[in-house]
Amino acid sequence: MFSTKQQQQSSEPASKNVSAWESLILDLESHGDDDDDDEEGGWFLNGGTSSSLQLSARSGNGEEKMEQESEDRLPQLLTNIHRDSSAAAANASNDRGEQQTSPILESPSQLKDWMAHQSTNTKYAPHSNHMGRKMDAAYSLKAAQIALSLAKCFGRQFEQDDMDEESRHEDLQYIHYEDVIVDNIIVKTEDSGEVVSAVLESTSFTSGATNHRSVGGNTERRQVLALGMIMYDLFTQGNPFPQRIQQSLKSSASALSFSKSLRISEHSEEDDDRGASGGDRRKNKDDDDDDEMDESDQQELFVRKQRLRRCDDEKGKEQSVSKLLKLAGVPISICRLISDMLSNRDDNDIGGLFQCDKSVSSFAEVIMDLEQMVDQPKDFLYDTIRLNAKPIVRDKLYSRQKELEQGIELAGRCVMDASSSVKQEVLIISGLSGSGKSSLVNELIAQLTSNGWESLHCKFDQIGRRKPLSTIASAFDSLFLSLLSTENTRLCGNDTLGDMRTNLLESFDEESFPILFHLMPNLRRVVSNDDNSTEMQQTDYVFDESAMISSKIRMHNLFYELLKAITSSRGSPMLLFLDDLHWADSASLELISFLIEEMGASITDDPITYVRGTNVFIIGTVRSNEVDNSSDLTEFLEQVQSCRNVTVTDMSLQDLSPDDVNVMTSEALYYSQRLTRSLADIIHQKTEGNPFFVKEFLNDLTVENLLVYRFSERTWEWEWEWDEELIESRAISDGVAEILTRKLLRLSKDQLSGLVMLSCFGSEVSLEVLALIRSSCSNSDVMNTLDCLAQARFVERTDEKYRFVHDTILLAAQDAVDENDHMIIMKELLQALLPYGYSDDTILFIVVDLISRVGAERVHDSETRLLYAQLNVTAAKKATKTTDFSSASTCVKCGISLLSDGHWVTSYRLSLELFNQSALVEWALGNTEHMMRSLDEVFNNANCFEDTLRAAHVKLAYLRMTGNCLVEAFDYGFQILEQLGETFPATPKNAIIAQEILGTKQLVTGPLNESKLRGLAEMTDSTKKEAMAFLEEMLICSYQSQSIYFPLIACRMVRITLQYGRAKTSCVGLASLALSLVTVFSDFSEGYSMVKTSMSIAGSDKRVLCYIKTTAYGMINIWKEPIQAILPQLKDVYNMSLKHGLIDNALAAGMFHAYRSFFTGSLLQPLSKEVALFIRNNLERHKRMVMHLCALPVSNGISCLRGSSFGPQYVEEFITEEQLAEALRNKESTVCEGMLAIKMMCTSIFRRFDGVKATARQYLELFERQGSASAQFVNIYRLFYGGLLSLHFYRESRDQFWMDRAAHAIQKMEVWAAESVWNFENKLFLLQAERHYAFGEMDHAAEKYKLAQESSKKHRFLHEEALACELAANFHEKAGNVKFVAELIDRAVCCYQTWGAEGKVQSLLLSP
């Protein structure tokens, strides 16, 4: 075995001595336990070594101690080695279905015994070499681990340069080449004269001035040589070296005379065939090429062959080291490594006996090889025969571990639990094409799904226009299909599907499902069961063209609710992968932006109702060189960056380094990194480290025979060979595209046409579509052709579709044929699919995309052009239904381009349809110029007025929503109505308005009239139906501008309904008439009854129903029903309006809810959160400045009452005289009155009267004059708190002005209390009490104060109860009834505290 110099000289038997190698093992174990700071960790059998090992003790005592410790510890050490190797062997046998056991080794005295034991007590792995004795897989792996530890140990002495001589002598007592003796093959020491060194000069530390690294070239090479000898003995399990090598080492003369011939004899049989293996094939020419060699090359080859013969003659049939290793069953990779280690020689080292072209000269190279073998034994250690002579680039990530860990960390933050960050995480991964963006995300998905995550993959396409929103919708549909699969149901159970069905049915109504079914057919199967399957099958999607904008928002809300329903029912986080965002259409980008914004808005850190995560992690990939070319993408990224509670992480993928490319190349070739380094360097230079380029470049080298995998008859090995000069000389001007194009041109005609055909559909195409074109494009069977392409890894096939392996292949396929051939293929596809486009929406959009790419200039037949134009307008209407207005615009433009000259004459209806649709979608997109051009086309060329009505609707909606065009909208609307037979007075008088309201009221009130109204038939007169639609638009205009035309238009709608039947908007007119009765005539009972009737006939149209409910709950029912019962109804209307995209209606309902909750005493803390969320998520997002001005005082008032340090402390700080005056100047009287009411409320509660007296005097009389006959909610609190302030000021000044204001307030309150005792009685009692107090009527005042307290408590107006108690306390204090004061103050404090008005409580407690 192995022994140290001292042990070799010992006279004791070998069995009694511990070899140097065994002592190394023991020392490694002992030092591994002591060195806790060793970065390798643990002792060498577990992959680690100590960094400071003193392996040889030169003193006698030290030697005896070492030998004694070795004797004591060796049995346990060998038992551990055997145990580890047995476990590895068991694992290897388990892979083969065998069960392998070995008896425990009973304390052998030497490792040689263990190796012998292993060789006779093992079963052989299937990858063992069959040229001779077989070696167990577990033994090979354990031996490689031991060799790796030794290499790391020996190599450490070369890592420490900067230490003084004393430290070197103390700390660097490593084992050197002179310490190792392998049987009789030795490395000479200074004092040994009995043997001859393989290197004639010792390079041990003989001089303190000699730096060990300065001679490290020779020193490290010699130690590598020594390690090679150890590894030879280790892997051959004790086989001796070839006899001639042992003899050649016994004399320096022999060593010198045979130094070159031994190099050949050692490796001639492998070097002449493998000399350039993993290296330069130029150094190993075949014998058949002798004639082509120059004279010097032929002479050299002749000399080498003569030396071979001479050596063989002298040594007979002696085998080389490499072949002995193979015959010992040693894996070929180990054979190569040991042979190359024993071949190392330096040019200055005249004693080197072994050398080859790829000799190993450093421990770093040894460690590199051994680490690959240990880490990946199946690929780099065990012998396997590769049947494929092409590189196999693995489906794994290279040099992306840091990015992968970052992605996992971000995903963890999205999980909905208390430890998550309060942010919605969005990861944007950028990089050049082929940089591995998708591969990184796919690996991340694989790791997350193993931990219970779900994933949705949306792959956007550069080529091919699909069904609108289909990229995102199909991802959801695929998820539903997987849920319905038998296997998934078996694994997950029916509960998951049942929970999802329940969530979906709760989240969507009967109008929403048809929209989603249209996009996701499998959703119908998920939500259908025995109870509702018939209903679900019968419903269909009906699009309302008059609600374009709201339909878009509604669609976005549907996707958001769908995502929430899925994540909540599955209970698993969801990863939404948006692949190739730079190719996403604008509709998809808008939807994604909406989803991100909504998810961010849903997150709150409220300790009561917090939502700290969305359970959704969004990842998008973009090509870094495409971002600047897409304005839609740039706008999308900017918008996402600005979203609240959203964190966007940018991750840029860089190209691989040379080392990474070497790893990739090595693993693709199953060849050591040491041997592939030169090839990898060239590949990196050519590809710049782009992973996809590297893969294709490697494959291209094999095709071009520049990288060859062949079997050597001399070495009996499969080996890679390449020619570096030829590879370096290859010019690739167009990068990977050039390689792919050459690759495609090598395909057969059918295969190339099949690939080009597939590229016409984009990155993927379904099997259903391919079935329709099976024999198109001069291809007898497209499916079989694509299957062949799938085997060649151009495409891949799933159960549903074919898709390109990479987008670069798609683009190469596009460029593989010239434009004419490409057009021929597209026209063939177009003709094959055309018959199916009328019945299948998916086929329709493929057809119109092909039409667009063929171009109108290539379609010459007039009938064909008209047919194509009609298909485009059909597709545009379908795209409009799914709110993909951008796709609709593209279809319309293509259709218009197909029209011929004079089309208004020859194709009038088609032209009218195209330009009407164009005006509609361009208005929805905000393209005013294009919209106006299309409108002009219609107005200038329409044959009759009726043909312009659709365009007129678009123009009126545009003017109404522009804001500063309301006057123009009124004028234009009345012009259209006049032509429809509905005229209005230019300047209506109040008397006319009153007469019209009362007359219409008589027609609809009463039991008989209400019954008649409910029983009206549907309106059939087309002119009146158009008039009703325009009247609704004008009704909205008049409400927005607070015009006196509002009641007149409402009355007209009711009268048309009574005469011509019920239209969809008839109930809107009736509800508006009810509102007019309440606000103008204060006819609360009739208005209340009428609005209930309007709700009963509204039907299921959510747009109409939301308007009526907002009107009813926000402005009418408050006069009759308890206001606390109305608040939940307003919240429901708000949510319903948002869900259906009715933003203006939602904002109105939300505003009503905020004001009514604040003034009626809702608890301030939760109300503060609701109002803040409402302002942030709606008003700020939708830029409704007027509503924002209305809501802000409510938020500030709440902060003031709560005493919040983040809000205003006093009312004077947030409602100023300037703000009130500005609102009046802008004719925003409702805003002004609301701010005044809040200001007076806070002043009354805080009793800070000085700053409000002048304001009250100015505005109370003003609003009294303007709204003496009106009845709006804000009037209630303006009069209530204005009356309280007026009575206070009257008591102070006796100014009759204030008493007049108070009397007006009391008179109004008496009228309202008669309508609703619940809402107004307590307010009336408190005003009356204050008036009695002002007049000195103390008994009456005391009684009214008590009644006010009791009524407030009974009717649950907590804050007004507190105010009544506080005012009563002030009254009794002034009246001298001190005994009541403390109790009343305590009661007021309690009520204020319950309400949440801590600011008031503090001021009340601090007051004297």
From TrEMBL:
SUPFAM superfamilies: P-loop containing nucleoside triphosphate hydrolases (SSF52540). InterPro entries: AAA_16, Hybrid_Histidine_Kinase, P-loop_NTPase. Pfam families: AAA_16 (PF13191). Coiled coil: none annotated. It comes from the Eukaryota. Residues 32-41, 287-298 have a biased composition (Acidic residues). Residues 1-20, 47-59, 99-108 have a biased composition (Polar residues). Residues 417-599 form the Orc1-like AAA ATPase domain. Residues 1-72, 86-108, 261-305 are annotated as: Disordered. Residues 61-72 have a biased composition (Basic and acidic residues). This is AAA ATPase.
